[in-house]
């Protein structure tokens, strides 16, 4: 190791770093070895061959290595320990998940001959297409919102743009709409609600639909 | 099951969970809860806060499942959420003193001098880790405590392996010097 001063090193007589007080705060040891390099080795990083050869005989390096390994030992011990989670963690998480109401991802259409389930994504798509036909709607932002498919079993729905839920016997849809300002916003909203509700009730046979609208943006011609 | 097998099993569970099968997600929680909790404890130095953070992280994972990139391992994605939640939590209580961890799990007769000393050292480690800058702390915890390779940690932290290597090295050096003050 060319940068080391052999004269500053020497052999430790009575064990690692004997008679040498390790100094971890200085940038380099008297032998020229960067202290950081020794700390890296003490914490488990592989030592470059020249450093390994030198440190084996240098009292300063051996003293620092010995001290640093001692300091690092609690970290090694903690790294071997796992921290058991609270026994009720799974139950708590799943209770929170159920409160979010994302479980009814399917609209269930019961029938004497079996059950038909319609994905919430399909409901969202139907609503999107219907809303897009309303006058005053420039765009409906529901395409990439499956992440926000949140249903509230007690009624109502919440979530981001295009959220869909199934509340008892009511289909709940939330849409983000971009309007072109060709009509007053309440009129656009009424039109969207009427079209979406008509389409959903017609296609699913459910008794009604709640359509929540978020006017997300406006385009000016 | 090896790591690869676990990852494949996770992928199937993720697919089912995305379809709304909460039972599949519950199995994911069971599989990963200990590692996620360990990560949060090491990031925060506080078990009570860690439990809250992990619960919140799993709930965010559930709501974010549709955005999950299938090319990544579920564990990588989950760790990313845990790290972010932990950092957010620490920012919220930035100036609050670190609570003293109570030795409640062991009977008093077992609290030997060696155990007390070990507790003191572990407490010094926790304090030193907590004092690290966020980016260094995350890199250190993932590599030194969670035993992730630099590439894996880089994926969790959305950076490069070299960046992780550098941050972890700076963190290790700072940690040892800080602990030297405590010892």
How does this structure look, described?
The complex is a heterodimer of chains A (221) and B (183). By secondary structure, chain A is of the alpha+beta class. Helix content of chain A is 37%, strand content 19%. Chain A folds into 2 domains: 26-80, no CATH class; 101-218, Alpha-Beta Plaits, CATH 3.30.70. Chain A has 6 helices and 6 strands. In chain A, strands 3, 4, 5 and 6 form a 4-stranded mixed sheet that branches. Chain A has a two-stranded antiparallel sheet with strand order 1-2. Chain B has 2 domains: 1-99, RNA polymerase sigma factor, region 2, helix turn helix motif (Rna Polymerase Sigma Factor, Chain: A); 108-183, Winged helix-like DNA-binding domain superfamily/Winged helix DNA-binding domain (Arc Repressor Mutant, subunit A, Orthogonal Bundle), CATH 1.10.10.10. In chain B, 74% of the residues lie in helices and 0% in strands. In chain B, helix 2 (22-44) packs across helix 4. The mean pLDDT of chain B is 85. The chains are: A alpha+beta (221), B mainly alpha (183). Chains A and B meet through helix 1, helix 3 and helix 4 of A and helix 2, helix 3, helix 5 and helix 8 of B.
Entry keywords:
heterodimer, A: 221 residues, alpha+beta, Alpha-Beta Plaits, 2 domains, 4-stranded mixed beta sheet, two-stranded antiparallel sheet, disordered N terminus, B: mainly alpha, Rna Polymerase Sigma Factor, Chain: A, Arc Repressor Mutant, subunit A, 8 helices, transcription regulation (chain B), RNA_pol_sigma_r2 (chain B)
Structure summarized in a few sentences:
In chain A, 37% of the residues lie in helices and 19% in strands.
Total strands of chain B: the figure is 0
Q: What is the level-2 CATH architecture name of the largest domain in chain B?
A: Orthogonal Bundle
The CATH topology of the largest domain in chain B: Rna Polymerase Sigma Factor, Chain: A
* CATH class label of the largest domain in chain B: Mainly Alpha
Would you identify the CATH H-level superfamily of the largest domain in chain A?
Cation efflux protein, cytoplasmic domain
Tally of domains of chain B: 2
Cα shape of chain B: globular
How many H/I helices of chain B?
8
Radius of gyration of chain B: 18 Å
Number of strands of chain A: 6
State Rg of chain A. 34 Å
Q: Quickly give the structural class of chain A.
A: alpha+beta
What are the low-pLDDT stretches of chain B, counting only 5+ consecutive residues below 50? Answer: none
Helix amount of chain A, in percent?
25-40%
Strand content of chain A: 15-25%
- End-to-end distance of chain B: 41 Å
**Do you know the CATH topology of the largest domain in chain A?**
Alpha-Beta Plaits
What number of structural domains do the residues of chain A give?
2
Strand percent estimate of chain B: under 5%
Query: In oligomeric terms, what are we looking at?
Result: heterodimer
Largest interface: A-B, 45 and 46 residues
């Amino acid at each position: 190791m060319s940068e080391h001063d052999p004269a500053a090193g020497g052999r430790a007589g009575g064990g690692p770093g004997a008679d040498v007080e390790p100094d971890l705060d200085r940038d380099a040891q008297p032998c020229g070895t960067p202290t950081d390099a020794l700390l890296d080795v003490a914490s488990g990083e592989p030592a470059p061959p020249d450093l390994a050869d030198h440190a084996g005989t240098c009292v300063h390096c051996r003293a620092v290595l010995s001290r640093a390994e001692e300091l690092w030992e609690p970290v090694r011990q903690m790294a071997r320990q796992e921290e058991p989670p609270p026994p009720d963690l799974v139950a708590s998480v799943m209770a929170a998940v159920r409160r979010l109401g994302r479980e009814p991802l399917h609209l269930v259409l019961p029938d004497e001959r079996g059950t038909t389930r319609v994905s919430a994504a399909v409901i969202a798509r139907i609503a999107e297409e219907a809303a897009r036909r309303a006058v005053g709607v420039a765009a409906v932002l529901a395409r990439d919102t499956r992440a926000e498919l949140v249903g509230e079993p007690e009624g109502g729905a919440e979530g981001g743009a295009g959220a869909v839920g199934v509340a008892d016997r009511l289909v709940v849809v939330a849409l983000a709409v971009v309007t072109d300002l060709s009509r007053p916003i309440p009129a656009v909203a009424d039109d969207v609600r009427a079209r979406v509700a008509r389409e959903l009730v017609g296609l699913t046979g459910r008794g009604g639909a709640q359509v929540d609208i978020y006017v997300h943006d406006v385009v000016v011609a | 099951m090896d790591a690869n097998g676990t990852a494949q099993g996770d992928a199937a569970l993720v697919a089912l969970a995305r379809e709304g099968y909460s039972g599949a997600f519950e199995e994911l929680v069971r599989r990963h809860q200990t590692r996620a909790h360990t990560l949060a404890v090491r990031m925060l130095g506080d078990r009570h806060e860690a439990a809250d953070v992990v619960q919140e992280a799993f709930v965010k994972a559930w709501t974010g499942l549709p955005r999950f990139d299938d090319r990544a391992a579920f564990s990588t994605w989950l760790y990313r959420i845990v790290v972010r939640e932990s950092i957010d939590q620490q920012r919220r209580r930035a100036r609050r003193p670190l609570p003293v961890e109570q030795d409640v799990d062991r009977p008093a007769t077992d609290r030997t001098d060696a155990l007390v000393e070990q507790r003191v050292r572990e407490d010094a480690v926790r304090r030193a880790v907590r004092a690290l800058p966020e980016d260094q702390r995350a890199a250190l915890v993932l590599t030194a405590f969670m035993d992730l390779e630099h590439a894996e940690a880089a994926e969790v932290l959305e950076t490069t392996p070299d960046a992780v290597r550098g941050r972890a090295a700076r963190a290790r050096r700072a940690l040892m010097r800080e602990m030297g003050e405590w010892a």
